Amino acid sequence: MENTTNQLGTLETEGQAIAKELRSRDRKDANQFKRDIVNVSQFNGSDKNPQGLWVRLGFLMTQIEQNNSTKKDCGLLKIDRRRLAEAKWFYNNLKDCQAFIAESKKGYTSLTALQLAMSKANKATLSTEDKATDPSEATSNEVEQSNVGQAQLPTNANDLVKQVMATCKDHNIDPQEIVNLINVYLQYETKSDVTPKGKTKVTSYDVAVSDAGWKVITNA
Questions:
Q1: CA 62 to CA 60: how far, in whole Å?
Q2: Could you tell me which of 19, 16, 17, 48 has the C-alpha nearest to residue 35?
Q3: How far apart are CA 150 and CA 130, in angstroms?
Q4: Region of 198 on the Ramachandran plot (φ > 0 left; ψ -120 to 50 alpha; else beta)
């Protein structure tokens, strides 16, 4: 029989009816999934609402993997291999899966959806950790800090004096000592510009402290 708007109503009413049915099925699937992941010691198929299907199937797969039985003897030969693999994954990661489900605000209807969600969460965590420890980022920060330091160097005599005074204050140094040393250096530099005939020009010197407490220049 051909579907017409007279028989089924408008597109909107049909869509709403489908959405309602899907939500109902999702709720049923979610409730069934909750029962299937309960950690039980034995699966009892005779129960009206049996629990632990995925847990016990995963357990059987680990036992088969250890050659304690076979898929044929357990009647699992015709079961989709993807379901068997997901059940084994769930059993081997049972505690992590349970913790993830407990923390998640979203309910799951299958192991496929749960595995995908956990995989995305793990990738996001790894990506965040990589960014936090990215060596290129650290190098960039170091360069920026270095450039900032260079930009703050004094560019004129007034700024230089201010910085020297601040440094003296921070390290408890008498600024007059700096002035005296500069005068001594200037005197020495002026004298060393002239090299007496037959003499060798002195090109290095040391700073020493005289008995009087003054800093003087001595030839190295």
A1: 5
A2: 48
A3: 30
A4: left
Measuring CA to CA, which residue among 29, 76, 36 is closest to residue 54? 36
Q: How far is CA 144 from the centre of its chain?
A: 22
Q: Count Cβ neighbours within 10 Å for each residue of 29-67 and write b for 16 or more, e otherwise.
A: beeebeebbeeeeebeeeeeeebbbbbbbbbbbeebeee
- For residue 187, CA distances in Å to 124, 173, 180, 182, 210 come to 67, 22, 11, 9, 17
What is the distance between the alpha carbons of residues 179 and 176, in angstroms, rounded to a whole number? 5
Q: How far apart are CA 137 and CA 134, in angstroms?
A: 5
Paired tokens of 124: 């996001």
Residue 165's pLDDT band, with cuts at 50, 70 and 90, is confident
The whole-model pTM stands at: 0.53
* Two structure tokens written together for 85: 């693999």
Indicate the DSSP class of residue 202: P
Instruction: Please give the C-alpha separations between residue 69 and each of 43, 44, 74, 91, 111, in angstroms, as whole numbers.
Output: 17, 19, 7, 17, 24
Tell me the average pLDDT of the chain: 78
Cross-strand pairs, 215: 209
Would you state the pLDDT for residue 151?
Answer: 46
Per-residue confidence (pLDDT) for residue 137, from 0 to 100: 54
Mean pLDDT of 120-135: 74
State how far the alpha carbon of 87 is from the alpha carbons of 63, 102, 131, 178, in Å.
12, 19, 34, 79
